[in-house]
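Predict the 3D structure for this chain.
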Amino acid sequence: MTRLIALSGESNFATDIATRAAVTGFQASGDRRMNFVSSLFSEAVDYLVSRDLPGYVGLGDRIKDVSSSIRFKQDIKRRVIEIVQGYPAPENVESTASEWRAYVGLISDALAKR
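Done. Predicted structure below.
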């Protein structure tokens, strides 16, 4: 997977996230396809949380300091992986774009409800 990403010649936000997800997902034991998909969503959410969270550190009771921030991010990533694992991804990487789009929509809806 990382070879395909590298051979694409692309270097952008999406390929960076996909590369991280490929490394993380394929190092884990079990269903590599679902590990990759779970890692892909987890890395994307981690990026968004990392981007926005610093503005909230020190405000309120939940995120008092950097250590709390790190724990909060880890909890979110773990929860995202749990949710994604509940929705099997298309069996074939060569599935159509519309199949993947529908799957991403399903996961996005599930994440939004939690």
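Residues 2-86 form one domain.
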